[in-house]
Structures are given as structure tokens and as C-alpha cells.
Amino acid sequence: MSPRLPVEAILTDIDSLERYAHDASEAVAPMPPSAVVRVASTAEVSAVMEAAHAHRVPVTPRAAGTGRVGGAVPMAGGIVLALERMNSIRGIEAGDSLAVVEPGVVTGELHRAVESEGLFYPPDPNSWESCTLGGNIATNAGGPRAFGYGVTRDYVLGLEAVMADGSVMQVGRRTRKGVTGYDLVGLLVGSEGTLGVITEATVRLLPNPARVVTLVALVASEADIAPSLAALRARGIRPRCAELLDAHTLGLVRLKVGFAIPESARALLLIELDAAPDASDRLDAELERAGNALVDAGALEVLVATQSHERERLWAARRELSWALRTLAKNKLSEDVVVPVTELGALLEFCTATAERTKIRMPAYGHAGDGNVHVNFLWDTEDERPRVEEAIEALFERVIALRGTLSGEHGIGVLKAPYLGLEQSDAVVALEKRIKDAWDPAGILNPGKIFPGEATRALHNFHGAC
Amino acid sequence: MSPRLPVEAILTDIDSLERYAHDASEAVAPMPPSAVVRVASTAEVSAVMEAAHAHRVPVTPRAAGTGRVGGAVPMAGGIVLALERMNSIRGIEAGDSLAVVEPGVVTGELHRAVESEGLFYPPDPNSWESCTLGGNIATNAGGPRAFGYGVTRDYVLGLEAVMADGSVMQVGRRTRKGVTGYDLVGLLVGSEGTLGVITEATVRLLPNPARVVTLVALVASEADIAPSLAALRARGIRPRCAELLDAHTLGLVRLKVGFAIPESARALLLIELDAAPDASDRLDAELERAGNALVDAGALEVLVATQSHERERLWAARRELSWALRTLAKNKLSEDVVVPVTELGALLEFCTATAERTKIRMPAYGHAGDGNVHVNFLWDTEDERPRVEEAIEALFERVIALRGTLSGEHGIGVLKAPYLGLEQSDAVVALEKRIKDAWDPAGILNPGKIFPGEATRALHNFHGAC
Predict the structure, then answer these.
(1) Is A433 an 8 Å CB contact of chain B?
(2) What was the pLDDT predicted at A315?
(3) Neighbours of A388 (CB within 10 A)
(4) How do beta strands B206-207 and B79-82 pair?
């Protein structure tokens, strides 16, 4: 029953193998993959998995390769299963507020397609113009709007997935509610391609809150961020975004935002509110309440952008931060830790102190409302590397001490796997592995990911003592 | 290390065994349990599970016993693990918008405790005055507010759970975002006590939208419900509740709602909107827009209740429906099926036709916004029972044909287990069982639940060919 894969779907030239051997992270594959298979259908995915299963060949599923922790980097050779050709939006059903998509659909394309029908797909990872739904689902991606609307997991209703043995499963449903059996959708979302290959997703949509306004609060200290958020919460205001720039990143965007930033400002909080187009009165009133709340909480200045070009200028500066930081040093690493919101000040203070101690620059920005901060590490020369490692490990230890978590949206992949034990006990990791072993006993699906020591183990398993 | 269980925690008298052998459903235990253990701490739960694991004794976890599908009914004798004494709210942390609770905390008590601090825990199953958080988590409970706010799963951040072998696990986190490892919280929520015993939960809270208004739309046909909801959605209005009464149930509450219901009204849609206390302007404007939308969609009449006593009268009638229906016949069964919202009319039409064909009364009401309808079956004499079974099976088949799901909030338990195969393929069920087997190889945790044929298999496993 397996379809023949067209010969042009299989790439084995060295350039292609190289191109598909890395993602947007620093993770390095220990050997090139043997082949890249650019599948075009669920049947082809199933055929690849069936053959890989029969011959015990590792398979690394890959969508756009925009991941930040090496999740799509093949760590044990074998096949890279490229899903970018499965890029069609199979349907948008406005009446039932859902869309059915293939894994290679670019997130921004889905945004535009549903918005043209008055609908809204909230998850908006920073790379939304290039990342795809398959990768978003594999990592349970977030983005600024996650504060108001939740993460990818909150929007995935049903999945079609191909298991390690090539069998095709329909899990979940088309309705928002449903408690039949175990939550296999929730288990697959965020499993980083280690439990199954997503070949179709049914995602929930909302009415598009087309009118959006942006407030910017400039504050005198990073310690003022959490109280500002508390002031909004106390007035029942639930922004869709609440983004943070620390003193370093504020300095970087100073000349790009289109308004003067006083020297005394040491951090910036960007708040967005939204509403349905014909609920403008409501939004204007909320905007005023939010502004007052921020001023009362001690903001140095509160600026309002209600026009889309003003908003776009602010956001362009925010979105470019990741790249702007990259120009400051030869090397950059970004960690997307999360702490309880009340600990935001403590986290940022720790970053400043650690940067001073290790002499590694550590600018931070991110999703303040969720306590999800992108802490960056910048360095130029190889001899700084040990201090970078020291700073990263100190950060993770501090985050766990503050009762936070290692990753808010990037996942664990290869790069954070060594640190998993900081957050999860051996017993919890063993529970997770029992699921992995139950579903993929040969360990062929995305080997070397999430669990500590897996990368070495995978190499050994599939290639002997190499 | 195991604590001695105080002798008064263990009940073996026949009255107690009988009392703990059923829940709020028709499910019947084939034999009484051997003992009821009323645990008071995680350590005691662990001790019970460790002993049960060593001696291969089945354990049925039980919170308030308000379940509707037999999830807490011991199907293979053994121990009923009663968690009702673990009923303390361990903490409410307003700054981080979370609460830490034991499984025996009554849902309504948590509501009141957090509301007194200006916070809000949305899930509100109809039995909120008696059901508990542990049961809510085991079944992933919903309620009317699920339309606006989501279900229990959307509010559980972290769990402490005791596994089949007595080991105590901390899974999940205290922050809303977090993608470290597999989503074990999501897997435990809704697993109906078959994967672990919840001993503590960290739940997310929202600011309390303390001002609430209620609209009632009377419509000429059940087919008008879905278009009315679409009209609200088209205007960007997201109610917190959208409840439905069909012609039968409307008749039952006719004299209790405090306003005249025209004879031509064949269904009722109850809409609730809410807002923060100081956002009254917004709410008044939204109320007006919602009313207009419902009138434009063809409602016969739209009534507004803005005062809490008016609202309470409406809701009391809605809440009492379940009991009011019970007075109409000797026997009542309620199935909480879900269909896509666009199929609500088709579902209700099917119920009317099936009731006519089988001569079994089938009044329906429920959570229209989520397409989650409680279809009731009323009958008096045993000779009607085969027709009830016929009607239920026809309903489930129709729901699946309409691309819905068997259960929106009650779970599968014992009563729906025979029908699981209508919705899930054998392959999907096998995937679920692989998780169950991986975590509870001896099958001692709540045996006989969810999977078809499990009740018989459990009896056989633990008691030979009895």
C-alpha cells in the first residue's frame, strides 16, 4: 500500500545534507544525515516511517528549521523528514471557527488567510513570517499574544500524526470541548517530534479583534515592571501583550522607536489592548484606564499609539531586537526562561549581577506578562565561552530557585537537554521516557532530544561506539 | 518511611462499603470494595498505593462521588481511596494569580475563597457546591463558563500525583507558560484516575470580572440557536456563557423564571457577559450590541437581567433542570455529547425525531456555545430500557457522524466505555493503553474504566473467572 516516493523527493547531495543538518540554533550535528526526504503527503510520511522502522533508521522531522534549541538537527544521522512541501491550508471553516492545515504552512500565511475572513489565530512566535505550524505545534510555540490568548496548545483541537512504525493516527477532535480518552493532542503538542510526526492539524480560531492599540510605559527601574503589571491586573485589564525591554535592549531601540526616551528610563513595558471593530468605545475607555493605571504605578512616561503605522514602528523595533543583538557580538545565545511574574525584578537583577561578574553581556527582553524572558548572551572570542557556560548554568539554577521553568516556548531540543535535571526529578524524566519507549520502542523518532545524555546514546545506538 | 494509617481511616463496615460503591450515575459495582481508606495526606496516599502495588490490589480513587459515568465506582473490588479529607486550600497567591489546593476542596469553596481576594477560578460544573477539584481534574470538568474561559485543563498549571507504585511526582509548573519535557499535566487531567492519584494541584486564577449581565433570547425554533451564536460571534462578542434550553426543558422552567414566555417560543438561549467592576461602560455597550445582534438574528424576544437577584432566578431554574427532569420519570440518564456548533440544529432535530421513534422522552439543554448538549433520557418501566439503549446508541452514532465527540465534560468512566470505539479507532485506543500499561503495568489504578471491555477484564484479572 505504500506509495513510491518520487525520486526527486530524496536528496543526497552534500549541499542539501548540509543545508538540512542545522536549524536557527548553535546545535551541531555530529555527522551529516544520510538523506533528506521532502515528503508531499501523509502517505509518503507513513511510507518513510514504515521503512525507517523496518530498518531501524533514525528520522528527524523538520518543518522550517527556525527552532532555537536544535530540535530539528539530526543528532544520529539517518533521514531528515522535511515537511515544508506539505504547506496547504486545507480549509477554513468560519461557522465552526476552525482551520485545517498541513504542517508546512507558514504561521504568517495562516494569520493572513483567516484574518481575511474576520478570524484570528493568536499564536505569533517572533519568526511568524518564516516558521510553520508543524514546528509551532512540535514546540508548543507562544509569542507576544500568548499573554492574552494562550499558546499553540490552546488552539490545537485535533491532529493527524504518523507514529514511529508508520501508522497514521487521528487524535483529538474538531470541537473545543471533549474528554473522550486520554489527551493525546496535548501529549503530542510540545513533544518536539519525538512521539509522532504531525501531518495535519485542526486549529481553533477566534473572531478577529481587529482594532488594536499600543501603550508604552517607560519606567525608572526594571523592578517597576511587575508592579505595573499588577496595577493593570488589579483594574481587571487583560492586555493581549505585555512585552518588556531591559536597560540594554532599550538602549538598542532608542533611535528606532520614533519617540524620545528620557535618560532616566531603565526599562520599557509595551502593552497592547484589542477589541472587535465595533467595540471602539470600550477600547478607548480601557486605553484610558490602562494609561492611568501605569501612571499611578509610577511610570516616568506613558505613550499611546493608536494608528497602525505608529504601532508598526514600535513592533518593528521589538521584532528586530533578536537580530540587532546579533550585530553586537560575534556570538549570541538566547535562553527563554520563565519565572513567576512577581519574580521578574529578581530575575533581571540577577542577570545584571551575573553579567557584571562573568563579564558576559546579558541583555534581556520578552513576554513580561507571562514572566517569559529572553535572556541573551553575547560574546566574541572562544576564550569567553567557559564564562558563557557558567552564566547560562547560573541563570538556569536561579530560574529554578525562583520556581520558574527552563523554557517558555523554544523547547528543550539538544541545547537544553543537559539541564533538564535541574527542573525535573529523575523519577519524572523516567515517567516521560516510559511514554517515549511505549510509543517508539526502537527510538527512531528524533533521537537525541529532550532527555539528558540522549544525543550520545543515540549516536551509540545507531552507529556503535563512534 | 510509610506512615501508619490511623485505624479510623480504614472503613470496612458494610454501610460504608455500600456508601462508597456508587457515584451520581447508574453505574453498579459488581461486588463491594474490601475497604474504604479515607486518607489525610500525600504520604498516606503513597503508603496505600505502595501496599496495593505490592499485593496487586485494585484501587479506585474517589473525591466527592458526583461523577456521572461511574468513574469513581469500584469495578473490581479492592480499595476505595477516598480523598475527601484532603480538603484544604494550601494557599492563594494573588501576585502570581494562582492557588494551591488539595483534591478534596469543594469547587464552590475555592470560588468563594479566591473571589474574596478579587480573583476568579472559572470552571463551574453544575455540581460546584458539592463536587471537588480532584474530581474536576480527573474528568477535565467544564460548566457554563467554559464557553468564555475554557475547561479545568486550561487552569491546571502543576500537579502532585501519586503513581501506581506509590511514588510521588511533581509535574508541571507554577507559571502559565512552560514547555520543558512532555505535558504530563495535560495527560493526567481527564485521565479519570487511571494514571495517577492527584494529591495537590496548582491552579491558575484570573482577575474577577465581578460585574455580570444576563440576556435571555427566546427563539421560535431550535434551529435558530446556532445562527444566534453566529450573530454574536460576527460582532466580536465573546460571552462567558451561552446556554441552551430546548422546547421540553423550556416548558419545565416556564413557571420559574419570573417572566412570561410566549407560546411560540421553542427554545431559549441564555447569554452572560462580564467585565471588571470599573469597566461598566464597556459592559453596558456590549450588552446593547449583544441584544441588537440577537434581535437581528430573529429572536422573538430578548430580556435583560442586570441585577443579581434577577440573574439568580434565571440560573436557579437552569441549575435545577437536572433535578427537575428527574421528577418527571422513575429513571433518567444524561449524556453530555458535543457537536460542532453549526450542527446544533441537526442534533436537536435528531433528538426530537429519535424521541418520537423510540417513544423515549429526550429533553436537551446545555452549553450551546461549545456545542456541548446534555441529552436526557427519561423512562419509567424496565420494559422501556431496550428502547433507551437503542436511543442512546443512535445518539452516539449521530454525534460521531456530525463530527462531534461522546463526552464534553463527564468523561467515559464505565458507562460510556462500550461506545469508545465509535469515536476512536482501535489503533488510537491501543496508543492510549500503551501509556496506561507503561505507567501502571499491574493495572491496579481505577481498573475497568475508559477502555471497552476493561470492566470484565478487571474482574477477571483480580478475581479469576468470577
Answers:
(1) no
(2) 82
(3) 17
(4) unpaired
DSSP, residue by residue, A40-64: -SHHHHHHHHHHHHHHT--EEEESS
Q: Do B180 and A406 touch (CB under 8 A)?
A: yes
CA distance A230 to B119: 13
Inter-residue contact B338 to B370 (CB < 8 Å):
yes
User: Residues A290, A239: contact at Cβ < 8 Å?
Assistant: yes
Say how far apart CA A305 and CA A307 lie, in whole Å: 6
The stretch A106-116 carries a mean pLDDT of 98
Q: Around Cβ A277, how many Cβ atoms within 10 Å?
A: 14
Q: Scan residues 374-393 of B and list those with Cβ closer than 8 Å to A.
A: none
The closest of A135, A137, A155 to A146, measured between CA atoms, is A155
What part of A 263-282 touches B (C-beta under 8 Å)?
275-279, 281-282
**Å between A64 CA and nearest CA of chain B:** 19
Closest Cα to residue B366, out of B241, B219, B209?
A: B241
CB A66 within 8 A of CB A135: yes
Whole-number pLDDT of residue A466: 44
Band (pLDDT 50/70/90 cuts) for residue A161 is very high
Helix axes of B225-234 and B344-358: crossing angle, nearest 10 degrees: 170
Whether the predicted pLDDT of B344 surpasses 90:
yes
Count other C-beta atoms under 10 Å from residue B228's C-beta.
25
Residue with C-alpha cell 465506582? B73
CA distance B395 to B389: 10
CB B166 within 8 A of CB B388: no
pTM of this prediction?
0.97
Average of per-residue pLDDT across A414-435: 97
Exposure class string for B367-404: b at 16+ Cβ within 10 A, else e? bbbbbbbbbbbbbeeeebeebbeebbebbbebbbebeb
DSSP of A407-421: -SSS--TTTTGGGHH
Cα B259 from Cα B44, distance rounded (Å): 53
Give the amino acid at A399.
V
**Whole-number pLDDT of residue A330:** 94
Q: Are B220 and B264 in contact, with CB atoms under 8 Å apart?
A: yes
A3 pLDDT band, cuts 50/70/90, is: low
Residue of B79, B63, B84 whose CA lies nearest to B12: B79
Q: Which of A93, A206, A370 sits opposite B176 (nearest CB)?
A: A370
Query: How many whole angstroms from its chain centre is CA B106?
Result: 14
CA distance B340 to chain A (A): 6
- Per-residue exposure over A400-418, b if at least 16 CB sit within 10 Å of its own CB, e if not: bebbbbbbbbbbbbbbbbe
Cβ pair B435:A437 closer than 8 A: no
A286 contacts in chain B (CB < 8 Å) = 279, 282
pLDDT score for B466:
43
Report the alpha-carbon distance of residue B129 to residue A389 in Å, rounded. 53
Report which DSSP code applies to B321: H
Interchain pair A339, B175: CB under 8 A:
yes
CA atoms within 13 A on the CB side of B49: 30
Cα-Cα end-to-end distance for chain A = 36
Q: How confident is the model at residue A115 (pLDDT cuts 50, 70, 90)?
A: very high
Q: Which three cell numbers stand for residue A9?
A: 523527493
Nearest one of B204, B95, B209 to A235, comparing CA atoms: B209
Q: Which residue has the cell 512552560?
A: B178
Distance from CA of B335 to the nearest CA of A (A): 13
CA nearest neighbour of A238 among B461, B176, B366: B176
Cell digits of residue B372: 456541548
Find all residues with CB under 8 Å of A434, minimum gap 6, and list them.
B438, B439
